Amino acid sequence: MTKTITLGQFIIEKQADFPYAKGELSRLLRDIGIAAKIVNREVNKAGLVGILGDNGTTNVQGEGQKKLDVYADEQFISALRSGGECCVVASEEHDDCIFINSEISQNAKYIVCIDPLDGSSNIDVNVSVGTIFSIYRRTAVNGPVQPSEILQKGTQQVAAGYVIYGSSTMLVYTTGKGVNGFTLDPSIGEFCLSHPNMQIPRIGTIYSINEGNYIKFPQGVKDYIKYCQVEDGATLRPFTSRYIGSMVADVHRNLIKGGVFLYPTTSSHTQGKLRLMYECNPLALIIEQAGGKATDGFRRILEIQPEDLHQRTPIFIGNIEMVEKVEEFVQLSEVEAIPGSF
Ligand SMILES: O=P(O)(O)OC[C@H]1O[C@](O)(COP(=O)(O)O)[C@@H](O)[C@@H]1O
Ligand SMILES: [Mg+2]
Ligand SMILES: [Mg+2]
């Protein structure tokens, strides 16, 4: 019989891997795991307890909030507040950062960026949703937290992860030393190690993009989609198109099966739609740690200097070969668009 390793045990075992190992980051990850279990419990019975549907409010992006968006946000913030290791939370659901000023968080060193519930449009129809998080360490030793400490590049993440509330509930995270996945065992109420050392397959045959936006895509992305659809045995084309509409679920599937997820700029989202700080950076770190790649077509996602908490970016993320093929198309069409070239 294989030994069960819970998330809590795993975190303690791996604590020595952390550069500043004093147990705070371990406790922070544990707090996120606890909030995830609470959110999971409500997601599972949402239809019964009246928390499906719209909340009647909008967030800073002008997007309608679902009741579960608000519930998940409250749970994660409350867990981070009472844990004492986090001094600032940046959440999709709040215009500004939330500064945690309590006695127990006086010496807190960590900053958390979070999308409490990703894939809102899927909540009411019983399709997978998730939580995405990113953890940074304060750059100053003490004193009030400065904006530059919050707007750090993705390369500075000390940990990142996601929870997917799907056919089973999983928590996947990295501290920059590989990626490990834990499945929630409802019989004991614990996340247990089920996917050690996750690696994205080198060859992928899935492309994930909202093709309903086709006419709004840049030419290079349109060309890449056509490339995916052309038959060619040597490259296993035509590729399969799969799009769930929850980034976390689309990226999780591609992490396990191999594939590329694309959310480019469109004529209606000229900066891209997905948010750098709490959607793209954490998933980019996970995918890179699993042997894949994440870019905006030109730059590594993790090297983009954020200028705003809710900044958006185009993203192409998945196994290296597929992402590099997308980049080839995107970059070529940019060159062709320069007057006088070709
Ligand atoms: O409906 P679209 O334009 O394809 O966008 C889907 C994308 O929007 C998101 O739902 C945005 O996330 P939120 O639900 O957290 O706002 C992503 O998860 C998903 O990939
Ligand atoms: Mg989201
Ligand atoms: Mg969200």
TrEMBL record:
It is found in: Cytoplasm. InterPro entries: FBPase_C_dom, FBPase_class-1, FBPase_N, FBPtase. Its EC number is 3.1.3.11. Residues 5-196 form the Fructose-1-6-bisphosphatase class I N-terminal domain. Substrate binds at D118, G119, S120, S121, N210, Y243, K273. Residues 200-330 form the Fructose-1-6-bisphosphatase class 1 C-terminal domain. Keywords: Carbohydrate metabolism, Cytoplasm, Hydrolase, Magnesium, Metal-binding. Binds 2 magnesium ions per subunit. Mg(2+) 2 binds at D115, D118, E279. It comes from the Bacteria. One of its GO terms (biological process) is gluconeogenesis. Its main location: cytoplasm. Mg(2+) 1 binds at E92, D115, L117. Its cofactor is Mg(2+). It catalyses: beta-D-fructose 1,6-bisphosphate + H2O = beta-D-fructose 6-phosphate + phosphate. Belongs to the FBPase class 1 family. Homotetramer. This is Fructose-1,6-bisphosphatase class 1.
